């Protein structure tokens, strides 16, 4: 079928297309970030990559971060979060746990302590409820560092949190006063 290494490469390419640059392969996303599954496969293949429905199913179903989702009949697909393109994921505000975590590389710590967590080119800041995942995320950016976010207090103070389909907590920004480097 497909190796895990091949699936990872294809997953990264699908993230690139579905989250950031659908125009790279001539794909159109609807207002909620959905693409027609058959068109995605066709356009990926037309751009020198290899993808079929079985491989796409494997990637969607086995991706440890659950980055992608199908609609009920698998005719549409989208990335669950992390977009830099302007879409409406149809998220509803949710009450977060008392603390959430954000992993980063050590080179970003001073900036974060000064300005807080900013979404920058993405639609949201990503937070998680699992410190081990935050460490792993931070490790992708160098020596991992983890911030504990006082999410419960932020919620009390009027900040809106959203929970994506794959369990990632999303927010517009986290001021430095709600952060603790752990």
TrEMBL record:
Family annotation (Pfam families):
PTS_2-RNA
GO molecular function terms attached to this record: NAD+ poly-ADP-ribosyltransferase activity; tRNA 2'-phosphotransferase activity
Any idea of its EC number?
2.7.1.-
Specify the enzyme's EC class, one word: transferase
Determine if RNA-binding is one of this entry's keywords: no
What biological process terms from GO does the record include?
tRNA splicing, via endonucleolytic cleavage and ligation
Alphabetically ordered keywords of this record: NAD, Transferase
> What is the stated purpose of this protein?
Removes the 2'-phosphate from RNA via an intermediate in which the phosphate is ADP-ribosylated by NAD followed by a presumed transesterification to release the RNA and generate ADP-ribose 1''-2''-cyclic phosphate (APPR>P). May function as an ADP-ribosylase.
Known PANTHER family for this protein? PUTATIVE PHOSPHOTRANSFERASE, TRNA 2'-PHOSPHOTRANSFERASE 1
What family is reported?
Belongs to the KptA/TPT1 family.
Q: What is this protein called?
A: Probable RNA 2'-phosphotransferase
Protein source organism: Mucilaginibacter limnophilus
